[in-house]
Amino acid sequence: MLTHNQSRAIPIFAFVLFVLCVPALFAQTILTADGHTAAYTQFQNVLGVTPENPDCSHTSFGPHITQTTDSILGVPVFVFNIHVTPDNDRCINFDRQRLEAKTDTGSPDALKGFNGDTITYQWKFRLPSGFRSSSHFTHIHQIKGGLQPAASGAPVMTLTTRAGSPDQIQLIYQDGTVKTHADLSPFLNTWVVATETVKVSTSGTYSIVIKTLSGGQTLLSYSNSNINMFPTQTGTGFIRPKWGIYRSLLESSVLRDEQIHFNDFCVAKAPLACPGSQPAPNFSLSATPTSRTVTAGGSPTYAASITPSNGFNGTVTLGVSGLPSGASASFSPASVTGSGSSTLSVSTSSSTPAGTYTLTISGVSGSLNHGTPVTLVVSPTSVCTIIPADGAWHNTAFASHSGTFTASFDATPSVAKESAAVGLSHGAQTAYSGFANLVIFTTAGTIQARNGGSYTAASTILFSPNVSYHFRLAINVTGHTYSIFVTPAGGSEITVGSNFAFRTEQNTVTSLDHWGALVNTTPGGTLQVCNFAVQ
Questions:
Q1: pTM confidence score
Q2: Which of 6, 101, 257, 464 has the highest count of CB atoms within 10 angstroms of its CB?
Q3: CA distances from 444 to 61, 385, 462, 464 (A)
Q4: Residue 38 φ then ψ, to 5°
């Protein structure tokens, strides 16, 4: 059994009155049964509105909201009493009955949810053992609009119990959709605390968590980060809460007289919250490692981990975006419930372009959607061609490229002052004049590139035998220009030339689709060209 202090958020009613006297800036109001002041008086004093009740048709019973010392908590609580007969809906409707405490137009502004407000509602309640619900509706909480047409006549959100197999407690949106539900049996004869947070907006947020007061077990939860919580055409008005019993009498023979215990009603506007209020259930998503490097054709893996918070126990479906071409991915398992991890396997192919890619691993559970980035570095497959000193061009095709693109390759001369060249062309070529872009190793022991009608370089760049030189060509086919950069093994990148013109004979070419290499017979040697790639 909980102690007196544990069960009561604000045990002294005088403190509630003090809260109402401070400036609305604090915007926190709490109503707790005091055991002696008339219940209707307490609701009127704190919420600014007398409860809606069936007293007019059942005067002999007296006020339908009373107080008692709860047998579980051992403290005063409010008792909402409803009778199958003769109680009705305020002597207005006789096919239903209503007993509700609420805020409304006469309430202080601190209790009204205006457009843009973030407001928290929190309350405790206990349904009795054997509680009987109508199969039509038995509402115990609603959020409605004030000052019509701030909201339609239908409540924005309704918490209702419904008879069925099994009986359920349901959360219903104003369009009639059931947003979530739970088995009603764990609620019976159990004190629970409900915490509901609303961002009042046409694109607002909503969350509700109902937990057992003893042990903190989550019995129902729902959250939505983009939902209309202020359905208005005018931008005016407010939302307001209601608590109690509002049930259909269309099947009165299966109903019974009921007593629902309520206590510790709280309404708080941000930045304040209700005592002990809990944020909405959520989860976080992380991945390890954050980066993988693989040669094209390899299959790296990552571990995606789900960590729940605030009682989250939903199922998170995993996905990934940002994969390069020629790559696919799968998760094992495809989803995680509550907490756990899944292995993401990425399969690249020999056609996957070399490069650095940002993949986004995503996790989706209902309206919750989180992502975490990881890096995939794809290295080209090491493919090398040895060019002999035969004075002939050796050509290799690649996918046709126009516009702007980058070509890269590694070239290693085998002798000092070797006479060799690597070029890009449209179609296979047999002469220097057929290549639009050319880089050469000269007999002077330097590296140069073709610029229109001659070979030149931005500076004197010497080369050595049996050293690999990484070339990067930034090519603009439309503009018939290219820039050339070279990085000696173990060194830094050097600019060979910026915005060099295509070879004069190729200044009208519209696309490039071959690369070729040549080594002259004098002074001989070979040229190894590896890892040619375009992107």
A1: 0.51
A2: 101
A3: 113, 24, 9, 11
A4: -55, 135
